[in-house]
Amino acid sequence: MNDPDAFLVVEDLSVEFPTPDGPVRAVNNLSYTLGLGQTLGIVGESGSGKSVSSMAVLGLHDADRTKITGSIRVGGTEVVGLNEPGLRKLRGNSVAMIFQDALAALHPFYRVGSQLAEAYQVHHPSASRRDARRKAIEMLDRVGIPQPDSRVDDFPHQFSGGMRQRAMIAMGLINDPSLLIADEPTTALDVTVQAQILDLLQDLQREFNSAVVIITHDLGVIAEMADEVLVMYAGRCVEYGPTKEILVSPEMPYTWGLLSSIPDVSADIDARLIPIPGNPPSLLSPPSGCSFHPRCAHVDKVPGDLCATQLPELLEGSNGPGHVKRCHLANPQEVFRREVLAEIAPDLVEES
Amino acid sequence: MFAYIIKRLLSGVIVVILVSMAVFALFWYGPSSPARPICLAETGNRCTPDRLENYEEQLGYNNNIVDEYGNYAKGIFTGREMPIGNVVIDCDRPCLGFSHRSRALVWDELVERLPATISVAVGGAFLYLALGIPIGVAAARRRGTLGDKLLVSSFLFLSSVPYYLFALLAWLYFTLIWQVPILGSSGYTPITDNPAEWFKGMLLPWLCLGIFGCTQYTRYTRGAMVETLSEDYIRTAKAKGLPPSTVVYRHGLRSALVPVVTVFGIDLGVLLAGTIFTERIFEIQGIGRWGLSAVQAFDLPVVSATALFGAILIVISNLIVDVIYSVLDPRVRLS
Amino acid sequence: MSERDTTADELVPEQQAEIEPAPALTPEVPKFEELAQQAHTAAALDLSRGTVLEVDNLKMYFPVKSGGLIRRKVGDVQAVDGVSFEVPRGGSLGLVGESGCGKSTTGRLITRLYTPTGGRILFEDRDMAKLSKRELKPLRREIQMIFQDPYTSLNPRHTVGAIIGAPLEVHKVVPKKQILPRVQELLEVVGLNPEHYNRYPNEFSGGQRQRIGIARALTLNPKLLVADEPVSALDVSIQAQVINLLQDIQKEFDVAFLFIAHDLAVVRHFCPEVAVMYLGKIVEIGDRDSIYAHAHHPYTQALLSAVPDIKQAAIGGRRERIRLEGDVPSPINPPSGCRFRTRCPIAQDICARHEPPLLQIGKRHKVACHFPGPIGAHPDAPITARLLGTDEVGNPDPGATPSPQITNKPGFDDTWFDLDAKTFGRA
Which residues pair with A96 in a beta bridge? Predict the structure, then answer.
């Protein structure tokens, strides 16, 4: 995962917005890498910085109102500090983004086909309108829209929710991007439609061998889609590693909290739903030390007031290389097995 | 859409009828007899109760109000003959009666004054938009910067000055004190008589209406644009790699125009129904001044006509706004 | 503040720090064991106390009007079409299904925000389907609603105290003086600071607003709460807080829930019994085990297989699933016969000709399918043909008569159709 030749390399990324009440540091020292054909899942709640960090990859933040430091390299091109024309060459071309609510993310006044064609023509200035339209129909067909040659002239509101998200994906992929960032791509959709869209994303990734960043709050989606997971809390990466390790033997209490606060369709009936107490912190005055300590139920297991005073480093845990976490707990594996798992999945403890 | 327009026109007709009925009734039962203006005018201000009674009798103001409104409404479609004193005024259709101050036919006066009002209104409204929209867009794109803040606060200051004061000062300085040649001549010259004079006479009224009105349109446009620029689809447009001008104008402005068009349609209707201050200050014989003086003199036929005219304009401009709305936004289906 | 005070302020914490080393990091955070003890396991079924709500063949058709000058009625949106179920006293029934299946409309019918087109809503044995507004007023106290969106369902111009106290004033339950104490008591129940009664909704986070919505619903001590997607707008970590709160409230106030949600896992945790809806009809209803472990309807099976599963992480890759093609058809012209047949992987001719009856196939399990069975073991021949008096492709069979045992009444019988023996009987 620390492959400097990877397609997407994010190093020490910080994103800060000055506000009238003081600066808000939405992303703080974030680093990750992602290779072609790989999928990274970024998990976190609203305000965790997961969307902000991904928008920075496309340079979508208003340069006048944002302070971005660190480095983002896409296919060897440094994005941080890149000028607007340079960014435009990347956007929608080698890096594409698809958004959560396709109804809001597609322009309500323009036909679906013309929005797709526009995305094609801006990076293929020599293409004629006919070519662009043909390409739009081809992409709509590719993402499974029935009768694409007539639906191409529909407006977004004439599409169903699932079809709109398909059209959004078609628009993102129209220029064969090497990196696709999907920001909550299935959150507003029904489960069966969500399954269709996730299937489609996976098929397309295989076909185009692109790198995919999938941003979600749904650990189930992560479990089925991602090769690696990055858990964010209050702008920082708190745990990062291969999906299997993060979800099977997590080492950071926030990740435990996420796992314990969602029910599972096949869970043990005796499993408890244990919430994370309190509310996510304000980024205007982030907590001292570990940002999660005011909500952490395991603070008592760390000696002294370390959690409140000292920010834990992002260090390798007991699972070996590739799995890092930001926590002062000395024996997270043991605490998780003995205390957390026993409550949230008693069946799994007995097995092991 | 056709059915919708028919339906709206039908309901519009009802609105117009109700408005004209209400105005008619208000002045009929008002503090002063509707016949008093003509009595005053014809007797040289020696209007005795007997004479007044006589005029009321002749003009039908002693009749039942329902019958008299019926005669009035019928006259619009068929014309009528109106006896007064020992003459009979032949009022062709559309007959709106005759002014009780000048004996002139109301319809003729309306037609005579309309070009002046249209000149003022259309020119002023054009400036509203031509100045307001680009300035609003520019401010929205630079929102939060010093320039934007200066613009917003100076426009806020400008729009808090009463319009009549603004226009009066403009006239005072440009025409009277500095005597700027091109802004010098005020008053209306028909465009068919002398286009240059027409333009010279209209220029200052236009500028006053335009500059004052554009402060509002800048606000509307800026507000709508700021909101639109934070929409998800604008982010999508940027993420596609479109150049900023395409993002702002093609994707942003079209959506932002929807609320602006709504306000503009109503404003234009109101302007066409008479720009009272502008006409008064710049000595333009338009609908607004005419209506105002008629109200002051309780000149019922003229008041009724201006109210009728205003109501029709508002109904039509509302309808046009709806149609434009459906053209701009494909989600709006008129039915 | 005087100079002396400032000095004192600076000194005191230091002195305290010496006496009390490591001043409790954040004393309000409970230890994990405490947290776990306060949390609930999945709710259990208790049938000993009868039912509080019985819904019988409930229908809601919304007329569809044509455009043009004269708007004629051209059809109906059959939003809810013959739905029957029971909610046990103090228990909870889950209604699940995808958008447009009619689950929210059902909830609104039960709170009588709509007047149903047909059917009965028996609340404590009184049919409230046809009551007038005035007759409904006393019943409105008993049935309250919790809404999905905590941001739009609270009036931003009213204080939290006014919002929660409003029902008390409207129904004149307590004298004016006692309203505030009651409001504060309710705030405490839902885990908010009772001193915050004079704040406005925008001063609270999404999860806190949902708590306010819950407090408002509890104000009149209702016997039934209709919760329409109560947690789907909340952050993951907050969802669990609210679900646990609802479980606390259910125990403490002995209130029954009709729990409407699209999240199958949340419903599974909260509701011992679940009804699955598709295009205005219940396709399968039963206790938790019947629905989640032994679903017999292909739609329920497809829904369950579509839910992304965290446990999959241990295996990697995507799970095998039943793929449903296309979208839900329009409820204006729903498919003939079985409404699911256009997307059903096992549909046959009979499905287009006859609507499958909601047949009881277990102690607490009903399914509306001509070919009910576990995944991969659906029967080849329709088990309903004989009951409907038809042959296997759905043509009328002159020798057979429709069975009187096909009904659409709420609740479960002591005898049911045995899928193996293909007869009615007690298992």
Answer: A180
Judge whether residue B251 has pLDDT over 70: yes
Where are the domain boundaries for CATH 3.40.50.300 in chain C?
51-277
Structural domain contains residue B333: no
CA–CA separation, A278 vs A270, rounded Å? 24
Question: Class of C51-277 per CATH?
Answer: alpha beta
Of residues B273 and B67, the one with the higher pLDDT is B67
Q: What angle do CA B116, B120, B125 make, to 5 degrees?
A: 145
Query: CA–CA separation, C198 vs C194, rounded Å?
Result: 9
Note whether B31 and B179 are same-domain residues. Answer: no
Percent of chain C surpassing pLDDT 90: 50
Closest CA–CA distance from residue A130 to any residue of chain C (Å): 29
- Cα separation, A203 vs A197, in Å, equals 10
Q: Does A191 touch chain C (CB under 8 A)?
A: yes
Question: Nearest CA to A279 among C220, C206, C368, C374?
Answer: C206
Best CA proximity match to C85, nearest among C228, C281, C250, C217:
C281
C69–B335 CB contact, under 8 Å: no
pLDDT bracket for residue C23 (50, 70, 90): very low
- Nearest chain A Cα distance for residue B278, angstroms: 38
Residue B174 sits in the same domain as residue B321:
yes
Q: Say whether residue A145 is in contact with chain C using an 8 A CB cutoff.
A: no
A61 contact B CB<8A? no
Residue of A nearest to B254 (CA): A109
Lookup: tokens for A148: 């694409």
* Residues B280 and B318 grouped into a single domain: yes
DSSP for C369-414 reads: -SS--STT---SS-TTHHHHTB-TTS-B-TT----TT----SS--S
Q: Please state the domain extents for chain A.
A: 108-171, 242-351
Q: What share of chain B is helix, strand, coil (3-state, %, to 5)?
A: 75, 5, 25
Closest alpha carbon within chain A to C318: A224
Q: Is residue B93 part of a domain?
A: yes
C309 and A265 Cβ atoms separated by less than 8 Å: yes
Cross-chain Cβ contact A307/C25 below 8 Å: yes
> Is the CB of residue B332 less than 8 Å away from at least one CB of chain C?
no
Judgement on whether residues B94 and B34 belong to the same structural domain of the protein? yes
Please check whether residues B192 and B121 belong to one and the same domain.
yes
Q: By residue range, what is the domain housing residue B35?
A: 2-103
Could you tell me which chains touch chain B, where touching means 3 or more CB pairs under 8 A?
Answer: A, C
Residue A91 to residue B240, Cβ atoms within 8 A: yes
User: CA torsion angle for A98, A100, A104, A110 (degrees, to 10)?
Assistant: 30
Interface mutation vs chain A, best among C32, C323, C375, most A CBs within 10 Å: C32
Best of C99, C148, C288, C310 to mutate (most A CBs within 10 Å, chain A):
C310
User: Is B334 part of a structural domain of the chain?
Assistant: no
* Tens digit of each residue's pLDDT (9 = 90 or more) over C183-204: 999 999 898 999 999 999 988 8
Contact B243 A93 (CB under 8 A): no
Residues in chain A: 352
Return d(Cα C86, Cα C56) in angstroms, integer: 9
Which residue does chain A place closest to C192, by CA atoms? A278
| Residue C3 or A242, more confident | A242
Q: Which residues of B touch A157 (CB under 8 A)?
A: 330-331
E strands, A217-319, in order: 228-233, 236-242, 272-273, 315-316
- Domain count for chain B, please give it: 2
**DSSP result, B1-36:** -HHHHHHHHHHHHHHHHHHHHHHHHHHHTSSS-TTH
B5 neighbourhood in chain C, CB within 8 Å: none
How confident is the model at residue C158, as a pLDDT? Answer: 92
Q: Are residues B138 and B282 part of one domain?
A: yes
pLDDT: is A348 or A215 the higher one? A215
Residues B155 and B245 in one domain: yes
Whether B335 is covered by a domain: the verdict is: no
